[in-house]
Amino acid sequence: xxxxxxxxxxxxxxxxxxxAPLALAATGLTVLxxxxxxxxxxxxxxTAAAPERVQRGPFAVQAAVDAAxxxxxxxxxxxxxxxxxxxxxxxxxxxxLVQAGFTVAxxxxxxDNWRQPESAGPVSWKRRPKEVSQAIDAMAADARxxxxxxxxxxxxxxxxxGGLTALTLAGARWSPAQFAKHCDAHIAExxxxxxxxxxxxxxxxxxxxxxxxxxxxxxxxxxxxxxxxSAHDPRIAAIVAAVPMAATIxxxxxxxxxxxxxxxxAGRDAWLAPRWHIDAVREAxxxxxxxxxxxxxxxxxxxxxxxxxxxxxxxxxxxxPPGFDRDALPGTYAAITRFFLQNxxx
Length: 346
What we know:
Layout (H helix, E strand, L loop, with lengths): L2 H12 L12 E6 L8 E6 L5 E5 L2 E7 L10 E5 L10 H9 L3 E5 L14 H20 L12 E6 L1 H9 L6 H11 L4 H5 L11 H16 L13 E7 L18 E6 L11 H7 L4 E6 L17 H7 L10 H15 L3
């Protein structure tokens, strides 16, 4: 984090001081074993211990590893990462939440993470809400955290595919068949949504066959899977969905979300075109709160630290568009934090 961003982050957090019952400078870091059928859970939490530089692959954070936790504000936030994700590109947001007193649990979604991406898409989307609930269960069973947190006032934050997870837990229903229907109608305009990193359109002669092949594969794989997917965990009391995958959703199901639902928008999202995703959710969900609107941001602009050395196709979809100012991110993180503080009160 640059010196200027540290100053801005401090100012943003200071603006939360009237809402946060406790602000701690130190972040603890630990990893819980993987629940059955899923991945390990990385936990950021308030601690009184002194932090040190912790290196995880190409990412570095300031944290106290396995230090004793303290109560903070008594609230848990579960963060659901995007396709192929890991905890580390969301560490700055997690630490902002910790500095406002939250404990943050970040499950690694099985088959759709940086180590194992083979189940990205509807296969993973179906099981992600259960993995969020398993993360809550694992935290509640841990002797260090069980007495410190209110298990009936949990928050959820999800980004990209994790945003679909968040919307599902807020009351949305979706189906693989709806995904196939969207791609059949709009694949040319929303190609990265439909094929991910498998191919891209270049404006050349091969675009038409790419579209035809992708449409055929998607239809044969998903069109027959018409069962609506839904999930509910009564412990979850507030949700934020950032740049969510949403073209799979029956938008009528979001007319009245079951808990306060905040949204984060990136106006220049090249992976999940706003028209078919975040803007469609905003149109359907009148009670939703636009927590942060970043008109010049791309799909990965909400991530920090940014993933380094991405393959060219991923970089074109995830890296910041020209003109996006990363020094605005502390304000976005403060707005997300403020939403949870306001909606997870006792």
